[in-house]
Amino acid sequence: MSTTFPGELPADAPIVGPDVTLGSLSEEVSSRVLMRRAPLWWWVGFTIASLLLLVLIIQMGWLFIGGIGIWGVEIPVAWGLALAEYVWWIALASGGTIVSALFFLTRSPWRSATNRIAESMLLSAAPCAGLMPIMHLGRPGLFYWLFPYSNVMGVWPQARSPLWWDFICLICYILMSLMYYYVGILPDLATVRDLAQSRTKQIFYGILSLGWRGSSREWANQRVVYAIMSAIMAPMVISVHSVVGLDFAGGLTPGWHDTQFPPYFFFGAVISGTALIIMLTILVRWGYGLQDLLTEYHMNAMAKVMLVGSLLLTYSYIWEAFGPIYGSAAAEKTEFFHRIFGFTALPFWSEKTLTVIVPQLLWFPAVRRNLLLLFLISAGVIVGMWQERFVFVTASLEHNSIPSYWGVYFPTFWDWAALAGTIGLFLTLFFLFLRFAPIVSLAEVREIVEEEKSQ
Amino acid sequence: MSDIFGIIGVFDTPNAVKHAATSVRDAGYRSFEAYTPYPVKGLQQIVHPGPRRLLPLLMFGGAIFGAVWGYWIQFWDEVVNYPINVGGRPHNSWPAFTVSTFEFMVLCAVAAGLLGLLAASRLPKLYHPLFNARSFPRASRDRFLICIEAADPRFDPESIGQLFEQLGAERIEKVRA
After folding, report:
1. Does the predicted TM-score (pTM) go above 0.80?
2. How confident is the model at residue A4, as a pLDDT?
3. Which among A76, A237, A440, B65 is least surrounded, fewest beta carbons within 10 Å?
4. What CATH number should be reported for the domain holding residue A198?
5. Is residue A1 part of a domain?
6. B2-36 tens-digit pLDDT
7. What is the ipTM of this complex?
């Protein structure tokens, strides 16, 4: 027998509002795509996003002219903000796949209305992640040397290096996510096509939906392929983020040389990805007025996932401290004490507070139902995870094995410009998804509506 | 009869369309198809009975192809075309190649799934006679359609109309070819 705590959402709480019908659902979601003029908040947000994107373009232009010396990276800290943010972005992106693929396999009903937001987020964040290492290459124009193809130069990438695995993972991840997204959205694009009034939109969505008719044969094929794709995407995303962990674990630097990093990084993806989905869901729900589709039920479920992510991460943090303290390697010890009491102490303790202590509030059902608190906790988690990546990447390099090789790292203006710029790229892409693609998976929510009606 | 593609019956609940599909099959029609806003459980078996294992097999084939291709490209790189001695390790150091092999494998499986889905559903097909039907757009929203096609040897507009009426169709429409 299950116990319900005071203030907790009952297990059989409605997933969508009582007034939602098949017809109203399609019109509600499609009308957001088809409306002639975007609402004011969309234009305000899109303008801010484009301005930030402009910052990225200027930053990249100056970076390509001046070289990566315009950032604060130096010897010994040759990996600065850009690579910390690479890890941060890829974790945010991975969260999208976790929510949409992993919870498809568990048949969690709350996943159906939020998975499109999660996937749009993932497709917006993945390019930001991919851009970071390319900007960091020093000679970004030659990044195509990473592709394994037969070339007249007669050179090949080093296939034994985790850095190359990472490149392969990321490129496969982006391609696969696009295909996964498209198979999922195809029927919904057909709905938009059928509701479109203007000729241009009919043609645009007609081409995008490839002539989907919703015949029972198409549905059967789509379901089979989508289920297998989900079963592939779930381990795939774990592999992607684990390989990011291997980039570090493969190095001998104290603080990085640890076998636990593949799962450690993945736990970070669970918490920060879910946090960003919660923030975006709250904003989309408010902006598009989708209160009856994105309900308390969804927020409650995602808050629980975020809490689990926080506990997993706490577990990893404990082992991260246990190794240096229990072990006998002097360099590991000094590096660890530098990290927690030295130059990076402030971000270190702030990130532990934001990702371990504050999320414990989510144990209280009332907090999980309070959107404002949920939003603030999620924002805190994302900031905390950024600090975590920053401390992780730079503190280790600052305190390497040889004391004569120690140094400190200060991000410069252009480091911050790269951060602001990629946030701009992310927001621009996400706003475009909001405007041009149905933001709730119609086909899947229809099933839930019918199920609730038949009960 | 060549100017008609088929006749549509419109139903308003998933159970009605399942019942209707069963009756249409029992009445002896074979060339018909159901169009629904979401996959109705059990409808597929009524409209197209029989096993279908092709797509999973295709994706499996894609996975095998991807794994072989992924390993081969690394083998070619590290052993044949550009061998570099890294600390005396064997050129064919397969444990280091597993990660990329896995990534190529899943990439090809997913790509095979997408292409297979399109091929098995005969997509893309930007024009279809059904798009001319007035009742068709609602099949992607809140109505459940059955279309008996003129290609069926037993096709006869009048008896089909009667059948749909008996089954409680909301609306019956002829679709021009």
Report:
1. yes
2. 63
3. B65
4. 1.20.1630.10
5. no
6. 688 989 999 988 889 999 999 999 988 888 899 99
7. 0.93
Note the pLDDT of residue A177. 95
The total number of structural domains in chain B stands at 2
Q: Could you tell me if residue A7 is inside a domain?
A: no
Residue in B closest to A205 by C-alpha? B126
DSSP element (H, E) containing A414: helix A413-436
Q: Are residues B30 and B113 in the same domain?
A: no
Q: Does A229 touch chain B (CB under 8 A)?
A: yes
Range of the domain at A309: 22-138+157-454
Calculate how close chain A gets to B26, using CA atoms only, in Å: 18
Q: Under an 8 A CB cutoff, do A216 and B43 touch? A: yes
Q: Which residues of chain A are under the pLDDT cut of 70?
A: 1-6, 11, 455
CA–CA min distance B96, chain A (Å): 5
3-state percent breakdown (helix, strand, coil) of chain B, nearest 5: 50, 15, 35
Contacts of A47 (CB under 8 A, 6+ apart): none
Residues A86, A88, A92, A97, Cα dihedral to 10°: 60
Residue at A105 is within a domain? yes
- Which chain B residues are Cβ-neighbours of A228 within 8 angstroms? 55-56, 59, 109, 113
Residues B11 and B39 grouped into a single domain:
yes
Whether A302 maps to a domain, the answer reads: yes
Q: Please list every residue in chain A whose beta carbon sits closer than 8 Å to the beta carbon of residue B56.
A: 224, 228
pLDDT tens digits for range A157-173? 999 999 999 999 999 99
CA separation for the pair B103, A336 (Å, rounded):
34
Q: How many domains does chain A have?
A: 1
Chain B contact present for A453, CB below 8 A: no
For residue A175, give both structure tokens.
Answer: 């391609």
What whole-number distance in Å separates Cα of residue A317 and Cα of residue B118?
A: 46
Which pLDDT does position B153 carry in this prediction? 86
State which residues form the domain around B103. 58-120
